[in-house]
Amino acid sequence: MSTALEGRASSPGVAMADAFVVRKVQVDTEAEAAGTPEEEKERADAALEQVEESLVELAESKREDLGDEADIFLAHADFAGDPEIADMAHEQIDDGASAEAAVTAAFDSFRALLEKSADEYMAGRAADIDDVRDQVLAVLAGGGDAQVPTARSVVVAHELTPSQTARLPRELIAGVVCAAGSPTSHAAILSRSLGIPAVMGVVGLLDAVADGTPLAIDGSSGEVVVDPDDAEREEFSQRIKQEEALAERLAELVDEPGRTADDRHVELAANVNDEGTLDTLEGTGAEGAGLVRTELLFLEHDEPPSVEDQIAWYRKALEAFPGQRVVIRTMDIGADKPVPYIDLDEENPALGVRGLRLALDRRELLVDQLTALVRAGRDASPDAGRLAVMFPMVSRPDELDAALAVVDEVCAAEGAERPEMGVMIEVPSAALAARRFAQRVEFLSLGTNDLLQYLFAADRVLAGVAHLPDILDPDVLRLIRDVVEGAHAEDAWVGVCGESAADPVQAAAFVGLGMDELSMTPTGIGRVKDALRRVTSTQLAEAVEHAVAADGPETARKILTDAVEGATPDA
Ligand code: PEP
Ligand code: MG
Fold it and tell me: For residue 181, what pLDDT band results from cuts at 50, 70 and 90?
């Protein structure tokens, strides 16, 4: 009998194939050293070297597919080649440890050092170190080569490390399913850039699935069917056919603008997190960037980035969108994005000094960033994108006034025109004051990730409260309608740049509410474009009217889904 499991939808697409289970290498680190200390050191060194070399090769062989995201493997190779790790391992071996135990201890001490920094970015690096350690242990165990399937399979694992994901031969991977992880884990991000359907966080997965168990998965809904019966196979075959038809339609639409069936233009733009995102733009049909995050620049180093370093990144972002608008957001650091050089000891960081609050407190950082932005915009080549600048985490109009005053000062100093300016609406007070914000800037952009967190008092990274917020809650829809009306009353354009815009039904709701632009993970654009073209703006406006009056988000979702799926386009 089949078993239905559920996880987090992490990379869209449908797949049906047998499972290939990737197991963690089991190494006995308690066992006595088999060789002399010299022999154990040689084994450890050889394994470290082999892993270093194979990671450098992996980075080069994946560069075409992954672009700059392949650099992660060079960083991993650096760990394997780090002389400090080898020295630590040698010391352990001198004290009688086996190569396996010594390598484990060396990587673990290195990891502990990083973890002490207690920030999210460094904690991420700690997980990378485990990945490299496990590769070295696999070589010591005599395996060496990564576990890879030989026939087309759905890869199943507790969690896949970046190197495991990248080593999987693309042509044999029908899908990826993990017991742990979330849509933001490395394996999910890589699956999306490679276009592989993926479901993360599937409870009970490894108890229900063995090597060779037939699986059917849907990366858009998070469904995982173990050992599907005939009816389920038929159902998933239909979905696969629909996916294939969709892929063909999307390929034809790639150069078409976003529009509804009655030709209302809705700009469909890309959210850009880092340089890796720029490499995933091809074939997505993005009409510019609605949100370029700049936090990584500030998170990556022990000191703030120089104006020159910032200009280099902003220029790349502008050049990636020739002739289109590129909305670059000033640093949104603090809270879940802490930086090592700013000491914020807060009990409730999500409610603390973050985003624009921090930028106004640390004016020199804001001046540098705006200087870099204004110079990058001013000196951009004529075929680059057009700079627009947006502020995050703004709660009161007077904060925006203070920030705009800095913009004017910087523009005067640089002899540059003020760029198109906008503000994120991601705090309830800002949503309520949308019209007053719209009097001050050219555009508003709804940050639904934070707006939902604050509206429902539900931490956006805490799984235990993830069921509470819903963007299709009728009262939230009503609030968004007020934001759109406030913006339009002041001739400002208004868009959405939170994750919710990538869901076709939610995107349709936003268009029904009057949004001018939707910005999302680039690979989400095609599906939204396809959905919008099947329905008129009038049908969407009517559906939203009903949804706003519905008794809860489930009913609202049903009304909107019916509108999108049941529409018979007249254009
Ligand atoms: C948001 O909050 O919706 C948003 C787009 O910003 P971030 O996810 O970077 O906080
Ligand atoms: Mg936000």
Answer: confident
* pLDDT for position 10: 85
Q: Using CA atoms, how far apart are residues 271 and 557, in angstroms rounded to an integer? A: 24
d(CA 385, CA 322): 5
Catalytic-residue membership of 497: yes
- The residue whose CB lies within 8 Å of the most ligand 1 atoms, and thus the one to mutate among 426, 427, 461, is 426
Per-residue burial over 210-242, b if 16 or more Cβ lie within 10 Å, else e, is: eeebbbbbbbbebbbbbebeeebeebbeebbee
Q: What is the enclosing helix (H) or strand (E) of 153? A: strand 153-157
Locus of tokens 């707006």: 451
Q: Please list, in sequence order, all residues whose beta carbon lies within 8 angstroms of the beta carbon of residue 72, skipping any fewer than 6 positions away.
A: 59, 128, 162, 186
Q: What is residue 507's three-state secondary structure? A: helix
Q: How far apart are CA 224 and CA 202, in angstroms?
A: 8
pLDDT of residue 498: 85
Please report which ligand is nearest the Cα atom of 331. Answer: 1
User: DSSP letters of 273-286?
Assistant: -SHHHHTT-TTS--
Q: Are strands 214-218 and 14-22 parallel, antiparallel or unpaired?
A: antiparallel
As residues whose CB is below 5 A from the ion ligand 2, the structure lists 426, 447, 450
- Cβ(93)–Cβ(41) under 8 Å? yes
CB atoms within 10 A of CB 386: 16
Query: Residues 296, 297, 299, 301: is their CA dihedral positive or negative?
Result: positive
